[in-house]
Amino acid sequence: MKPVLLLSVLAVLLAQPACAAPSDDVSLYAISLVGSPYRRGGISPDSGLDCSGFVDYVFRQTTGIKLPRGSRAISEATQPLDQSDLQPGDLVFFNTLNRAFSHVGIYLGDERFVHASSSRTGSVMISRLSDRYWHERFDGARRVALPEDHPSAVASFE
């Protein structure tokens, strides 16, 4: 990853309010996994992650929430929102296999998202929503509902 890109993403995240919200934890932890290997069906950064395995792993580690397996199932278990309402930690979905919701990533802010990409680098990487490839395939945004009483309480959407 280019140091300038990483620094600019960190600057956006650090410019947010001093009290860390759960979405900040999600974004920062997701960025920490950049460079982890891609593996179809993967659920661990050590052995490799695919896109839904990556998103589930990040949310389990930061919030205790276990998301369903597969990007389509994750889209069905989360709350739709307008692209204009995206906040760091929200999910972004894409049609990359000629079917809706076939790829998922975690929004970072400033038009950037982090995802496990097989075709681009074979690893977890940061991309821009405005890149032609992703812009043309954007399927929508969703938000994971965090339990209000305990943001880190274990919940399951399976």
> How many extended strands?
10
In whole angstroms, how far apart are the ends? 33 Å
- What is the succession of H and E elements? HHEEHEHEEEEEHEE
Global structural class: alpha+beta
- What is the strand content? 25-35%
* Main sheet overview: 6 strands, antiparallel
Count of the domains: 1
Helicity, as a percent range: 25-40%
CATH architecture: Alpha-Beta Complex
What's the CATH H-level superfamily name?
A: endopeptidase domain like (from Nostoc punctiforme)
User: What is the fold named in CATH at topology level?
Assistant: endopeptidase fold (from Nostoc punctiforme)
Rg, Cα atoms, Å: 14 Å
CATH class equals Alpha Beta
Runs with pLDDT <50, length 5+? Answer: 4-20, 149-155
Please specify the SSE layout and strand pairing:
Layout: H1 3-14, H2 22-32, E1 43-44, E2 48-49, H3 51-63, E3 65-66, H4 71-77, E4 79-81, E5 91-94, E6 103-109, E7 112-117, E8 123-128, H5 132-137, E9 138-143, E10 155-156
Parallel strand pairs: 3-10
Antiparallel strand pairs: 1-2, 4-9, 5-6, 5-9, 6-7, 7-8
Helix pairs in contact: 2-3
